[in-house]
Amino acid sequence: MKILVINTGSSSIKYQLFDMEKQKAVVNGLAEKIGEKTSILTHKLIDNQGNGKKKIEEGRLANHAEGLERIVELLVDPEFGAIRDKSEISAVGHRVVHGGEAFQESIIINEKVLAAVKKNIPLAPLHNPPNLTGIEVAQNIFPDVPHVGVFDTSFHQTIPRRAYLYAVPYSLYEKQRVRRYGFHGTSHAYVAEEAAAYLKRPIEELKLITIHLGNGASMAAVKNGRCIDTSMGLTPLEGLVMGTRCGDVDPALPYFMARNLNMTIDEIDKTLNKQSGLKGLCGDNDMRNVEEKAVSGDELSALALEIYSYRIKKYIGAYYASLGHLDAIIFTAGIGENSPLIRGMCCEGLDSLGISVDACKNKEPRKDIREISPPNSQIKVLVIPTNEEKKIAMETERIVKRNGCGQTGRK
To answer: Which residues have a catalytic role annotated?
Structure first.
């Protein structure tokens, strides 16, 4: 089975073609600046050794339909394609950011599902509209195959009420569905499953803390394969310090900014989402640059690293308490996978909880799943590369097979 995975942004289409028999991506690419004067399409054919043959095109893609049509042309291209005809694609998996309370798992997309995704636009106004555009465009190009929605929020739908409700008037939840939803669920689910396979134990027996650290960052407490708490909330702003997002702050801060700085709601939103976090603290949201500046003696960069890791450390303690027992901590995503300094700072001083990092193992420049805790450590500290697109492909295959959908996308 060959599955096309699509992640649509407001002016971009990120895509991968998976050969599920080989359990690997055979093509990946990105069309960006769609609708602008000059669009860029980067397409890579991946061989059996994991090496890529790249093609970069510059030229206007007027809309997402033109973008996806060109992507399909490249997928079947004799030199850069991996299939002879688009009919070889058995299903299309779509990343959808917000499923609200409507979806506890991935699902075959139909009119009812589309209506529910549209209904959740107020909860994700920047993400759900382009996700819907991607679905509609793909359905026109691939009308006879099943399309599956895989939601960032669905993994977190197992969180109990005591963890997802805010202590605000209950009517806000009843009427507006104001609650904790969480994000990065596809990544948290994927690395939790990979940890179980690595530890050679059923995921139903494990208690894990998963730490997704990219420009956006979140954590999850995973008990017996089910998420019981997560750091992001109604929006991706809550929780950890991120590249440009503030994470947890006093809820009265926006009122303070409006009253004392005469800032509008839009200005406050922009400040907290795009000008805060690492960027707000030290002027740079690229962790590699922040670390380099800190090592060179820049005080604000060093302070930013302390604040960043301290917030993570507090959540580790909180989730350890929620789980009651802990088998492993998992670091993943760009920073989590590639920054020994951050991993070490997050675990520093937690020896009394049974959490520690072996300095030599932590510094090994490896890309595979690896254990960075000391030998015979009761609580494992793991680094696991995430692969959200692969998880979407796996979910798409599972849902299609479960629903008995054939090539037509119908039972």
So the answer is: 152
